[in-house]
Amino acid sequence: MRVVFIGPPGAGKGTQSIRIANLLGVTHLSTGEVLRSSRDAGDEVGAQAAEYLSDGRLVPDDVVMRLVTDRLSDAQSKRGYVFDGFPRTLPQAKALDKLLSDRGAPLDAAIQFVVPEDELLLRLTARGREDDTEETIRERLRFYNTLTTPLVEYYEGRGVLRRIDAVGSPDEVFDRVREALDTLRVA
Question: Residue-wise over 115-150: b if at least 16 C-beta within 10 A, else e?
Fold first, then answer.
């Protein structure tokens, strides 16, 4: 199964993507981890991505797609994967769909984690990070919504989007994600 998790910072994508990947017996792919491991391995594309990250800039879509393409080419990813926080933009989603289509392995699902902004504020400020002020969190959420609204609409139009209520205990949210994926398997 090939799945992407979409959700704002603090929605629980990281926790749930690892759990779902383990349940399905597929690879967990976090673009942050892929970027770091490529950089640490001394790969050219990883070094290029590191330049952007060190300056606090977003890594351009073409660089991210090169990293993703490399990662999906390894043997571990053949059984399937759960993407945690990728794609983040509509161009990334379209590029991923083309890549998967060219390989004859289209995306099975996009799971959107829905959490009210007030809940996200509570979660993110509770982390205690110095840069997690209410103002900076609200700005990150505005930026996130600007980028991902077209992404959500795109996956909805393709019929692969499933929304889940991501408020509750980790076990409750896990059960909702599992149920959403189960509806795809019987469809």
Answer: beeeebbebbeeeeeeebeeeebeebbeebeeebee
